[in-house]
Amino acid sequence: MSRTIPFLLAFICLFLIMLEGTLANVLTDISFLPSDWQVTSHFLLIFVIFITIFFDQRNTYYSFLFAVLFGLFIDILYTPVIGIYLFVYAVAIYIVRNLMKWLHANFYVTVLMMILGVFTADILAYFLYNIIQIHNMGWNDYFFHRLLPTTGWNVGIGIVFYPLIYKLLRKWQYIKFEQKD
Amino acid sequence: MSKRSNLTLVEDFVHDSVGWLQQIVNEPIHFTTTFFSNINEIKNVYSENQKLKSQLEEIRQVEYANQELTKEIEELESILGKTETDFLQNFNEIQASVVARSKDQWFKQITINKGTQDGVEPNMAVISGEGMIGKVQTSSPFTSTVLLLNGFDRSNRISVNVDAEETQTDMSGFIVGYDEETNLLLLELNENNDSLKAGQLVFSSGLGGVFPKGLEIGKVTEVTEGRYSLTKVAYVEPSANFESLHHVIVIDRGMITTEEAETLAEEARLAEEARKAEEEQQNAENTEEADES
């Protein structure tokens, strides 16, 4: 059992990537949201932040591995430029991981980390895509029409699924690292 | 945007394996969303039905006229000795479903569930029921990505005709880009033509060498002067709705495209060179033989 857990986590990550793409097709079509809002799903990032907080030990780097590997998948699947999401997710996880050395793993810290992670990743992606001239969106426009709705959406989903993922990861962490067989 | 249309093996593999799984994820979500929109639509069913019934008679007449015209065209074609692929309008349709959209709205890109195995190649036009929506950007064996019209820039122009009712000849021009603020396409006419008016329909002209002729693109909404007042610039409202896309049709142009023509020419050139080299070799051998004797 303890060997299959990283693969189970990877499978969930893969599922979340697919969900991001499928939901993007639905989210653009929702009529009650203002039409100039851009809501981007970062479910993978949210889940990997959960892994960083509740699963990874000091000497394991599963969250990094998943952020880099599935960030690359997102680049290949959904964008013509390879490397941006790989980089921004890795940076976000690096920051969260280092901060978690000083903080306790509880609900409020998790919400804070989700907000921080989404902010870091999305703002970095904004600047990188701006540099290579994918878009020319002004900062104000970006902040109010994309960053805030995106953060709200992702952190909201994260909070809703918090109890479920928390229980699951704690259990798997116990099986993987503490259980002696 | 990247200019490559050929993917590496790894990218192909990721696209195909995830695309296949994605269809399974897509099914329940698509079901739920269509379920709710169906409920919304049920409210208007009766009035819509009445309207459709009245249109049915009209369609029957059009269909009859269509049949007669097709017969006539076929006869004329046979007289001229032209085959089907000689016409710019001809194309094959490949039906496809949308399995995903780029999760980042900065990329106007969707993924469809048909690839090179079904005959989808890069640069083919893609339409929905209402009109043209974009072109195939890259294709893997079983999935392809489509660049939507609102992601087009100056490097992906479309050669178009504007349908003017009063005159016999259509005005020709290019779709040169997309205006993010107004959500309209930009049309530049080749010559300064005063008969360009709001409300006229814009079609692909087939002269760009990539798309077939006659795909509906949109309707002119506003006409302004271009730079230096030498050309007219018009804003075109796209016919298709890029926001709600579920089923699309990939258009495989019947007539040879410029790209195919280039590769064919290249192949012919190589074959010619090989033939010449062979001939020279044979000549050399012949002279050698002659020397020996």
From TrEMBL, chain A:
Compartment(s) of residence: Cell membrane
KW Transmembrane helix (keyword) present: yes
Pfam families with a match to the protein in the record: MreD
Membrane-traversing stretches: 40-56, 61-78, 84-100, 107-132, 152-169
Any GO CC annotation of this UniProt entry: plasma membrane
GO BP annotations, alphabetical order: regulation of cell shape
Organism superkingdom: Bacteria
Membrane topology: Multi-pass membrane protein
Main location (coarse class): membrane
Keywords associated with the record: Cell membrane, Cell shape, Membrane, Transmembrane, Transmembrane helix
Family according to the record: Belongs to the MreD family.
Listed name of the protein: Rod shape-determining protein MreD
